[in-house]
UniProtKB/TrEMBL annotation:
The active site is at D8, D10. It comes from Phenylobacterium montanum. This is Beta-phosphoglucomutase. The record marks S113, K144 as: Important for catalytic activity and assists the phosphoryl transfer reaction to Asp8 by balancing charge and orienting the reacting groups. Mg(2+) binds at D8, D10, E168, D169. Substrate binds at residues 8-10, 24, 43-48, 51, 75, 113-117, 144. Belongs to the HAD-like hydrolase superfamily. CbbY/CbbZ/Gph/YieH family.
Length: 214
């Protein structure tokens, strides 16, 4: 029985997965590192420095800690520029409805994003008040695919992890949900998210009565 639904943000509720990709791609081009959408799949859900390390794997030279911090800051600047004008119009179709359906059914909701920009973004999208808990990415020691993000949300909600479902577009996210012993719903390509318990094409494809009957 599902008592809480944990929502990822980037790529699930709004199209920022693409904005993150564009920001990384700009940086990668500037330093001459090969990078494309396929390589980007591995970065989805992964925190900023972890993503940078993955992107730098094919860079023409090595970067020390101070340089890596500067590169991460530069990427975040590009990303913040891309989300500057975001508003409720940037929610994916069905995103607000999905959150409202959870509330109407008496389920708890949490935002389980790895992004340090998440709190700002949900404010701009106008959905902040629909979450019972928002995980602060800055307090997570081991990010996705580690289950810590999800377990901290379950603890904050006071719900046993086995009674939680999570909605994720990233391979790292599905892995983290399964490691937390939660029901893992993938949003995206079933071939990419093959380990999920269920996969839908987009958040508007979620049939809420079905989720509730799990
Ligand atoms: C995740 C995204 O939600 O947040 C990743 O899927 C991103 O692509 C990560 O790297 C961290 O985001 P931020 O905003 O803290 O750099
Ligand atoms: Mg995501």
């Amino acid at each position: 029985r599902i008592e809480a639904v944990l929502f990822d943000l980037d790529g699930v509720l709004t199209d920022t997965a693409h904005a993150h990709y564009l920001a990384w791609k700009t940086l990668a081009d500037e330093i001459g590192a090969p990078f494309d959408e396929k390589a980007n799949e591995a970065l989805k859900g992964v925190d900023r420095m972890g993503s940078l390390d993955l992107m730098l794997k094919k860079a023409p030279r090595a970067y020390d800690a101070a340089e890596r911090q500067a590169l991460a800051d530069r990427k975040n600047g590009y990303y913040q520029k891309l989300i500057e004008g975001y508003g409720p119009q940037d929610l994916f179709p069905g995103a607000r409805e999905a959150l409202e359906a959870c509330k109407a059914a008496g389920l708890k909701t949490a935002l389980v994003s790895a992004s340090r920009n998440a709190a700002t973004l949900v404010q701009r999208l106008g959905i902040a008040e629909l979450f019972d808990h928002v995980v602060d990415a800055g307090t997570i020691r081991r990010g996705k695919p580690d289950p810590e993000t999800y377990l901290s949300a379950a603890a904050a909600l006071g719900i046993d992890p086995v009674h939680c479902a999570g909605i994720e577009d990233a391979q790292a996210g599905i892995a983290g949900l399964l490691a937390a012993r939660m029901y893992a719903v993938g949003v995206g390509d079933p071939a990419v998210l093959s380990s999920a318990d269920a996969v839908v094409g987009g958040i508007d494809g979620l049939r809420w009565p079905r989720i509730l009957s799990l």
